[in-house]
Amino acid sequence: QEKSPCLSASLLGEDSEISPEQLYELLKYAALGRSHSAAQPSWCRIRHQTHLAGVMVVIVPEMSQLYFYKYYLQFKHLRKLFQHRFTLAPSTDFLASLYGERANMKPQKAAQGILLGLSERSDLRCDPIIQKYGLKKRGITSYILNSEELVKNDYPMKGFPKCSHYVHTGCDQQRTDRSPLFGLDCEMCLTAKGNEVAHISLVDSQGRCLLNELVKPQGSVVNYRTKFSGITREMLLPVKTQLSDIQTKLKKILPRDAVLVGHSLNNDLHCLEMIHPSVIDTSLLYARSEGRRFKLKFLAKAVLGKEIQCEDVVGHDPGEDARAALELAQFFIEQGPEKVAKLNLEKLLDDKSEKKGQRVQQELNESPHLSKPCFLECLKVTGQEPLLLGRQELDSSSPCQSNPSASNKQILQKALEGVPVSTFGIVQFSLGPETISSQLLAELRRKMGSKLTDMLTVYAGPFEAKFCLKSVEQEFGRCGPIRSVTLLTETYQPYVCIQYEVLEAAQLALETLNGAEVAGSCIKVQRPVTATTLDCDDLIKELELDVENQGVIYVAGLETSLTEEDLEEEFSQLKDLETLFLPKDPQTGKHRNFCFLRFRTVQSTEDALEVINGRSMEGSRLRSRKALAPSHLWRWIWQMNHSSGKRKKMNNKKKPQLLDCEQNLRKKVAKLDKCIKKLYRSLQHNTLCVVVFPGWISGCGSQPGLGLMAIKDDRGRSAC
């Protein structure tokens, strides 16, 4: 059964921002796997990355986290499709950071690198690599051996007498620079017939092993060559796979435009008794003078920084050798002949200095004029042509095709046409620069702050004339952290205004204390009735159904002295408990009196609520309900709420104009939501989709960005 890729973004309770560079690393790993120095990010794990069908990034440059939660109800598709969200650190040049190190290169440094390169070129022209390939970077087809080179280097060829019984791979389609690369290596034993294959490995362009099998030689074995092949008599005794079986498998696996990569691959093809027309031979690619060749072990160490064919291991690993040869070819194609020549491999070999080899490799990675290629270039080398669409004016370093006059509808149509033929895409939608202004942004922040304040506030009463305010505060404090308690004197009977710090606490107070007896009085608990709270019930309902809140419950009434270890022990009997998050006060660093629990299934979530609230009926201080605020958001709510009092009200003369702008923005947001939904539904099954609202720094202050992620399943929904 095929394994489906899945995101494991343990973001419950995360209050740290993800930088654009961290997002870049995630996208690089998703698109390239472990090749090209792509590492699994620590903040988000992709399980079964090799089964990803593609990656799609959607960017809306003008948007920030504020807009998503201000128009939360309008984003009805976005909030239902994308399970994982994270706060993105605002960036003044998000696109440059996304396109990688090369796009980030400052013009001054880039110019300096060019000048340095010119001064070095005269020395490089004598290098065998430059003499063979020139200075400019080329595509895959430029490094495939031509017919003359195949004959000269003893490759199996159709029509040769000794190859009359050889099997053709059937890969007869014309090669392009997008043709896929496959690494191949065989280990041989010496038999009465000569060299015969005993072990074969084939890897794809991502380094994934497609074939790794022992093969029964046809002739009687004269020498197992265990020191080099790793093959022993005992290993081959149970093997029944014949050479013909391997030939059949290779013909099935290799696409018609496959390019085989190997080190002295002619030997492997002769032992396989197969003919393949398109080959990149790394022993010839890394050219030396006078027909000499570098060993694979040396190239892997000097170029890739990898140790292979270690002396303490008996025999070579054909999978390791096939992968090394593949990565050497990819490195050469990506970096180009000039940068490979600058490694000065001949001198490294003469000096026999491993340390110097590591230093040169480090210089290649770190020097401004030898910067690592952005992963968009790596994609092209591996045969993946990125889809890049947008309407924003970008700087000259950006590879994205832009058209300022294009509408989101036109961009969507182009994207829908490109999705079936692209495994990686960056699509930019826009609300239009005229939509956003500093005045509108300030007004939206003010309204969002007011809405949060109203949603976090409850009124309770009436109380007796001489009631105990402290007992009221204690009772309401069981629902969660209180920001303030105010006694209202405007009413005939005493009422109390309680303002909480988290949404769940205010909602829990409404649900559990309305109609309850508190401080000797049967009280009513309600939110303030304002324009911002008229849709509060709808908003609360949608927040409960939010995909990111599935399986998460809020528990209040904890002793602040308890640690996470204490709580894990207390809740240990709850079935399928996956994660526990105990927040800290942003100012004091002390633990709060509430926590969040995430469960693996919906049923275990319901069972946990029943257990905890059942204890409450029996006298326990704990109270719980389903989570409301997405897990990354509680700190943001705290910041918005605590800064709301500092905001200035808008001049009444400007309000009608801003109201029109806000209504226009609301409509554009709803249309944007539909555009993203259509694009998402057009994606292939198992495609990672990331939506980015970059945030920015404006006259109104830093605006945190927002990222949304999901892997589409075969029903068009989030896979995990």
TrEMBL record:
Signal sequence coordinates: none
Keyword Transport listed: no
Domain RRM: 456-530, 551-629
InterPro entries: Nucleotide-bd_a/b_plait_sf, RBD_domain_sf, REX1-like_exo, REXO1/3/4-like, Ribonucl_H, RNaseH-like_sf, RNaseH_sf, RRM_dom
GO cellular component: nucleus
Keywords tagged on the record: Exonuclease, Hydrolase, Nuclease, RNA-binding
GO molecular function: exonuclease activity; RNA binding
One Pfam family named in its UniProt record: RNase_T
PANTHER family: RNA EXONUCLEASE 5 (PTHR12801:SF82), RNA EXONUCLEASE REXO1 / RECO3 FAMILY MEMBER-RELATED (PTHR12801)
Record's protein name: REXO5 exonuclease
